[in-house]
Amino acid sequence: MKGKFAYIALETTTILICLLLAADLYAQVSDVSHIAFSSKRDGNYDIYMMDINGENLQNLTNSPTHEFKPAFSPNGQRMAYVSSRHDGYLEIYVMNLNTKVSHRLTHHPKHDANPAWSPDGRWIAFDSNREGTYNIYKIEPNGANLQQLTHERDNYNPAWSPDGQSIAFAANEANNIDIYVMNADGGKLKRLTRQEQAETVPTWSSNGKQIAFSTGLLGNRDIYIMNADGTNVRRLTHHPSKDGSPAWFPNNQLILFGAKWEENSDIYLIDVDGNNRRRLTRHPAVDKDPTWVPAGSLSVSPSPEKLITQWSRLKQSVGD
Fold first, then answer.
1. CA–CA gap between residue 274 and residue 161 (Å, rounded)
2. Segment 268-311, tens digit of pLDDT
């Protein structure tokens, strides 16, 4: 009898170990860093996804027209992007990443571009010239409740703050492009930069304390970082090519960007102190618009076959 109880205890321990291994495997898969970007490697712009080390490339869109500017919902289940597939005008589309089925979000005979999800997933901000000049709008992901947030000058490239209370964007006033910030309802507009060169494509750090952007401050376009209130502007990249479309890594220590530092336009990764630059893509076609992919779209539980294999091996090792 004592031996039987010992065997049951051993079997129970084995099950617990197996479950722990399964949980550990799930955590490892969930934490894998992936990026998405636009690339012209198949003749027209499509959206691709790959591991942070440049492996396991996947084509998420496959249309004879251009698809670019990917933006992911906070839970990682949907992707907004820009395409001209129906009428030649740029429109916003939303893809279900599980089914790869897209629906058209905007319907207007003007250009709608640069989608950005709100942190709570309830809104998608974008810019559009449907009223003549470019302005910032927001709309629910099902296409309802369109709201115009800006009404003066050209405004584009919206970026939500992590708390969802503010939207940063670029604005062109008297041929001078600067970064502005406003409340999520369009109120309390504030100008953050005051330079003679163009500042574009703002993006917030995940803690909301800093904003990265690209600018031609010193004659060539580089990536800069500033505090969220516009103070302490500092240069991150130093290269005579055009560096653009910065995207913060969730740990606030790394930034993705697109650049032509070598012979091709590729995706790069750099530390926020400007050191340790890494080239992530190496293709003769243009790669641009990088962004991080939330882990929710990639989390995969261990398969039954994997669990059975682990269980069998554990039982065998215990029996030995």
1. 23
2. 999 999 999 999 999 999 999 999 998 765 543 333 333 333 33
CA dist 84 → 66, 68, 107, 138, 279 (Å): 6, 10, 11, 20, 30
Instruction: Check whether 1 has a pLDDT greater than 60.
Output: no
What DSSP line would sit under 160-174, residue for residue? E-TTSSEEEEEEEET
Quote the CA–CA distance of 49 and 32 in Å, as a whole number: 13
Q: How far apart, in whole angstroms, are the C-alpha atoms of residue 261 and residue 270?
A: 13
Residues 226 and 275 placed together within one structural domain of the fold:
yes
For residues 91 and 77, the answer to whether their CB atoms sit within 8 Å is: no
Q: How far is residue 144's CA from residue 66's CA, in Å, rounded to a whole number? A: 25
Range of the domain at 310: 1-32+299-320
Q: Which value, in Å, is the radius of gyration of the alpha carbons in the chain?
A: 23
Please give the Cα distance from 279 to 259 (Å, whole number): 10
- pLDDT digit string, tens, across residues 6-52: 444 444 444 444 434 333 333 333 344 799 999 999 889 999 999 98
Would the pTM of this model clear 0.90, i.e. be above it?
no
Given strand 287-293, what is the order of strands in its sheet? Answer: 58-59, 46-51, 34-39, 287-293
Please report which residue ranges of the chain form alpha helices under DSSP H: 2-30, 304-319
3-class secondary structure, 12: helix
Do residue 95 and residue 177 come from a single domain? yes
Contacts of 146 (CB under 8 A, 6+ apart): 137, 138, 139
Residue 31, amino acid:
D
Whether residue 172 sits in one domain with residue 145: yes
CATH number, position 52: 2.120.10.30
Q: Which two three-digit tokens encode residue 231? A: 């103070």
Please give the Cα distance from 151 to 314 (Å, whole number): 65
